[in-house]
């Protein structure tokens, strides 16, 4: 069975919003820092946001102020609220434990049109 399942992606116009969700197995979620990654076409996969087991979050400069990462420890889920989306945000989005992750899920595609 899948350890990481991402959902919530779709097509949205620039300036719009989306909320992504990641369902993780309890064994990799509990007590660990989780992160959201994204991979744009033809580029490497980058870590863009993290959240510790206690709820402390960090972001790369390109998404800070626009994206918000959160977690629900009871449900073993991690969310990413994305506002003021830009075409440069177009990518496949993945979640994983960090820094020591497990096998990647399928991700969820976010496409932002201009």
Describe the fold and architecture.
The protein is mainly beta and 114 residues long. Helix content is 4%, strand content 49%. It contains 1 helix and 10 strands; from the N terminus they run E-E-E-H-E-E-E-E-E-E-E. It has one helix at residues 26-29, and strands spanning 4-7, 10-13, 18-24, 34-39, 45-51, 57-59, 67-72, 77-82, 91-97, 108-113. A 6-stranded mixed beta sheet has the order 2-10-9-4-5-6, with no helix packed on it. A 4-stranded antiparallel beta sheet has the order 1-3-8-7. Strand 7 and strand 8 form a beta hairpin. The relative contact order is 0.32. The model has no long low-confidence stretch (mean pLDDT 97).
> C-alpha Rg, in Å?
13 Å
Count of β-strands: 10
End-to-end separation in angstroms reads 38 Å
Question: What series of H and E elements makes up the topology?
Answer: EEEHEEEEEEE
- The DSSP helix count reads 1
Helix content: under 10%
Structural class: mainly beta
- In this structure, how is the largest beta sheet organized? 6 strands, mixed
Low-pLDDT runs of 5+ residues are none
How much strand content do the residues show?
A: over 45%
Shape descriptor reads globular
Within the largest sheet, what's the order of strands?
Answer: 2-10-9-4-5-6
Query: What integer is the average pLDDT?
Result: 97
